[in-house]
Each structure stands twice: as structure tokens, then as C-alpha cells.
């Protein structure tokens, strides 16, 4: 873990008044995390600020979970990954960017009663994203969505440089988390493009079932387009095979295809494969991520291993 410094400690090292440090922070020159009324600065960040260390990756690693195919297990993956990272002690935010509001629903929250959601953050200039963030019972926080977000596609079309809105709105909280997971909607529209623009990296879940590979090329094309237009540093974290059923030829063939694709394109294929299990279908009914409800099950273990692979880089 990176050592965290107080503003006083930083002032001492820089040999300046503490107010000067606060000004550096306010001006965005020195990235810092807010802890209550105070700030904490990562030692690594300070060294880079002084020019004495590698350029830091400041703030949260932002991971978009994307695949425009409905049922590709984006929401299941996002929720279980957020919960797994939380269990590892990582400060994690899950951003629901799907108008279906699946993240909140699978945690037992009634989204129709939410006054403010990610939709308001996207379309209202003055609303800080921290205002919509809620605690969950599973050691991660949630920026929920509901059906209001369906209107955002149209409303965002009116706004200039609309691809970067989510990125800009997340700027103020980025330093407060270790990981931000974005659950994308089942389309390659402006919402997914916003997620890919805001993200450092994309995780692509692929359900090993009929027609799973359809559209994968279009997703890769979209990632290339986003790299060319708005986010040249966008990485691919990897492909995660899910709903795998070794008894079916179809599942085995899809897994083989994905493994070959990853080898050819030099993309990471996550070692753990998430098996098909009815427990995943049941878990939203109990309003609990599977990794919290049944951590001992194969599928839950797989997500926890994926989280560890992500933490280890
Ligand atoms: N490993 C799995 N085995 C069986 N069913 C799964 C698995 N993972 C997810 N599911 C189920 O598949 C359906 C689609 O998953 P979901 O995460 O909602 O996909 P998406 O968000 O991509 O549309 C849900 O009913 C979910 O419970
Ligand atoms: Mg979903």
C-alpha cells in the first residue's frame, strides 16, 4: 500500500506553508483524497509532483464492464466484482450506467423511488456526483440509475463534447476511491461511449452460450474509435468467460475461440472462468451479490480470483 501523507507532512517535505499545499490541491496540481474535512496525499503522488519518481496513476482505476449484448453478464460481473474488491479492503464505487438499474435491483433497492440518479448527474451541470452516491451493505458504494437514464441518450445529443461528460463529472471523486466499476448498458450508444471515455480500462464479460460471439467485433471497433477520438490510453483489462457449462459443446467451443482470440490479439483472458450456475439467477432475489451470499461456490470464487488478478495488475 502507498503511504498516505497529511497536508502538514507534505508542507514540511516541500518546505512551504500548509496553505500553499492546500492551494496546490485546489488548483488540481497535487491530487489528493478527501478524508472528512482533511486531505491525504499518496507518497508516490508527492514524489511525482516533486519530479522525483515515475508519473503516478492518480486516483481510482476506472473499469468499464462492457459488451453490448444483453445477458452478457455485465451487471452480474460488475456487482460481484465490486463486492469482491470491497472484501479485499479496496474502496470501490459501482456506477450503474444502464437505464434498467440492474445494480440497484440486484441489491434489493427500489429504483423507482430514487430522487436523484446518475441521469441527473449527466444532465444537470450543477449536481455533484457525490450527492447521488449511496452506501450498500457490501463494502462498496453505488451511484444508481433508473429508467430516467433512458432519456439521457436523447438529451446528451444536445450537449457539446458529450462523450466526456461522465469523465468530467467523475473527476471530483476519482481520488476518493481505489476502483470505480461502470456497468454499461446493452448498446454501443452515447452512454457506453461515455463509460469508455471515462475508463482506464475495459473488462469484457462473454457468456459462453449461443450467439455470444456476435457483436464482439463491433465492440472492438467501438473501443478503437474511442481510442482514436476521446481516450487514447484506454486499455482492455481482459475477457472474462462466464456462464460456462463444460457439458455443452457450444460452451467449450466459445471458450476455445476466446482463448485463441486473446492469444492472437494479445489480450488477457482471465484465468478463472465463471461457471454457469442457477445460484447467479437466484442471488438478486435475495438482494445479495453471490460473493457475499455464497462465497464458497465456484462462481463466487471465480469473481474473487478475478478481483485479485485486477488488484495484482
Ligand atoms: N454464471 C452464471 N450462470 C448462470 N446465470 C448467470 C450467470 N451470470 C449471470 N447469470 C444470469 O444471466 C442473466 C443476465 O445477466 P446480467 O448480468 O443481467 O447480464 P447483462 O447485464 O449483460 O444484461 C441474469 O439472469 C443473471 O442472473
Ligand atoms: Mg445489465
TrEMBL record:
Highest taxon above the source species: Bacteria
Domain Helix-turn-helix: from-to ranges: 4-50
- Residues passing through the membrane, by range: none
Q: Which InterPro entries does the UniProt entry name for this protein?
A: AAA_dom, DNA-bd_dom_put_sf, DNA_Partitioning_ATPase, HTH_17, P-loop_NTPase, SinI_DNA-bd
Q: Does the keyword ATP-binding apply?
A: no
Q: Where do the AAA domain residues begin and end?
A: 62-236
Name the keywords, alphabetized: Plasmid
PANTHER family on file? COBYRINIC ACID AC-DIAMIDE SYNTHASE (PTHR13696:SF99), P-LOOP CONTAINING NUCLEOSIDE TRIPHOSPHATE HYDROLASE (PTHR13696)
The name this protein goes by in its record = AAA family ATPase
